[in-house]
Write a structure and sequence with these properties.
This protein is mainly α and 131 residues long. It is built from five helices and two strands, in the order βαααβαα. The chain is 53% helix and 9% strand. A two-stranded antiparallel sheet has the order 1-2.
Length: 131
């Protein structure tokens, strides 16, 4: 399903880096939808309750130095229905976790991309009890 989203600058940088790395390593181009889908699926390989989402949200990554100004970029992601369901599940989970009235889909995607990126780069994303 094609879904239009306004993603953060951080999400854009992570998506670009993953796309470039995949092209360099595999010699093939992949879409942002494919990258997002894999990140969501990888996050759900874990118990999302064991991930320290506050740490994921506040952790400053080196790639964030590349952000000149924090502006959103609009894109259309082609996502599987199962991935969209997982994003909705994250939105509901984050509402309770962060005590928010509403969680935007783009925020859930950003945290999933960031957590997946952190894990791939050897940064602990789990609560100390589970690390």
């Amino acid at each position: 399903m094609r879904v239009q989203m306004s993603l953060s600058s951080l999400s854009q940088i992570i998506l670009k880096k993953k796309k470039e790395n995949h092209f360099q390593n595999e010699g093939a181009s992949i879409t942002y939808g494919y990258i997002t889908g894999n990140a969501i699926k990888n996050i759900f390989k874990h118990d999302i309750n064991k991930i320290d989402w506050l740490h994921v949200k506040t952790c400053k990554l080196k790639v964030e130095n590349e952000i000149s100004e924090d502006k959103e970029f609009s894109t259309i992601l082609n996502l599987e229905n199962s991935v969209l369901e997982k994003i909705t599940e994250l939105q509901i989970f984050f509402k309770g976790y962060f005590g928010a009235n509403r969680i935007h889909r783009a925020f859930a995607v950003k945290l999933a991309l960031k957590a997946n990126y952190m894990e791939e780069n050897g940064i602990n994303i789990f609560k100390e009890d589970y690390a």
